[in-house]
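Below is one protein, fold included:
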Amino acid sequence: METSLAEHVSRPKEKNPILIVEGVSYTRIAVKTHLITFGEDLVSLLKRYVSPQLEPGDWIALSEKVVSVSQSNMRHISTVKIGRLARLIVKGVKKYPNDRGWDSPEKMQLVVEMAGIPRTLLAMTLGALGKLFGIRGIFWIIVGERLGEIDGFNPVVMPPYNEYAMLPPLHPEATCAEIEKSVAPAIIIDGNNINIKVIAMSPHMPVDRRLARLILLDNPMGQDRELTPFIIVRAGKRASI
């Protein structure tokens, strides 16, 4: 089970550029960009917006959404025909007041299509049994955990992205390695108001996957109208006790 925010992080009531994690302060610098469109070169974007602000020892966190956008790895809502299975699964999805999550049948239809109906049915059945015993997450283990990275079909986000779903980034480890070679060590995260998942890391990140997740666990990234899909992370001094 992943550790909670409260166990390792001193978190303010609102998002703060500086966060103390396990006694060390980390500054998270949100990098503002233009509205990035499908097919733009990711490394070129990082060199343009991030490189001028980098200092030795810094690393970069990228939203999975901007990686998928740069790869043109998406589906328009007009191409999705909702089936009965997707509608059925959505009825049992846990609802969150501050995040749409998986209550979109169009979004769940993509999972059904990518995993296949037999696997999805098995996942739904075993997932329901798991909940009876207080075990959650079985559904995603069976359909494939990376399908949980699908993001989009959210009517409140900035056009034109309200009409699209971003599929899981292609070759995320190789993408991080390329960014490290050209710009700085990097990770790709799937972040929302509920949780943070580290999708991939470059080979020479100065922190491990667990610590990187904790440093970003309050989701300081702004992926909509904030236009800050990149975060520079800079370690400071160990906080005094």
About this structure: The CA atoms of residues 82 and 106 lie 6 Å apart.
